[in-house]
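Thanks for the sequence, V.! I ran DUF3142 domain-containing protein right away. Repeating your input here for the record:
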Amino acid sequence: MSLPRPRILLAILVLTCAGAATAALLPPRPGGGTAPPLLPNDVYVWQRAWTPALGLAMDQAAPDVAAWRVLAAEVAPDGRTAPVLLNDGRLESVRAHLAGRPVTLVVRIDGRLSDAEPAALVETALAPLRRWRQAGVAVAGLEIDHDCPTARLPFYARFLAALRTGLRQEAGDIHLSITALPTWLNAPALPAHGLNDVVAIPDEVVLQVHAVAAPTDGLFNPAQAARWVAAWAERFPTPFRVALPDYGARVSWNADDSLATVEGEAPLLAGGAHARELMARPADVANFLKTLRLQAPANLKGIAWFRLPTADDRRAWSLATWAIVARGGTPTGRLTAMAEATATPALYTLTLANDGDADADLPAGLDLPAACPLGDGANGYARDPLASRLARQTPGLLPPGARRVVGWLRCSDSPSPPVIHVRP
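Predicted structure:
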């Protein structure tokens, strides 16, 4: 779950007020009823830098989190370990926000890494485990996030077997998990040390069902995800979790359809010939999760959310929206569109506002009144040349309590602002 790669993934706040702020920002938990039990929620902390907003988000999310899965190191295609700022002398700060939850360290290994002797890679994977434990963090598990091509599964099996041995020698009962791609389900029968070995070696597998298709196919398809989960549970007995998205991304690709960039939390200066904004809709994920709870396979152990939403992450859901979905609810924003008068007579600003308690989908369009012949869009909206309306250019969410100016209108004189109609 790193960026960029073929499987695309992903205001200074006063931390001393985090406890009081939690109750105000997050919705109440649903209670009672005969609904199936909630699935435990693990959350990936994938940010490269430790910020006040990240610490606050961890404090606020903690009541709904069963365990943290924290990015600890990244291995580049040439085998070198890329720095992760979260580990750079800040483990004391990290420890203060772990809230007593189990911690799994995640080592991201680039899928383009060439075959090598497993011993060096094992040492690379064990290094962050030693560093965190020396800093006093009780690490419960180690996870390998590697988008392994099917043809290289034999090498991956050898590496995991060596890593399992190294973990036993290094840390005794440390839990080993890996991420898995649904494309592995289509792998042909392999010789020894193939797919079955890869899935059997770890204690647990995290099945990716988001950002595993071409960018043009979107970020998350609930129907396809359900098929993958059912097929995986039937084929493999190893306990597994399902990785679900709570984010959006801007994806660009080159003229030859190869992936160029994936822009998540931070803006990128480069891009390809084509680009598209993708978004995992909270309602889609919520409905998928409700169905999954009703039909949960016996070896399904929970959900692993990518990634922890923070106030700095402009493409993630709001934390309040994530909490509603994680608790089994369906978030509903309350979106209104209005024409607001300006200092210039007959000139209005078009504004969207969300006064609900969860993110609201940006509407597909805004119908403009006939009395307003002049106008244009802004901030993701443009005037439809064939109709009196503004059309959304890219999908997105408007957080609770937020406002967005999306255009302007010039109308004939009227005693009151014109009425704007929203197209879902």
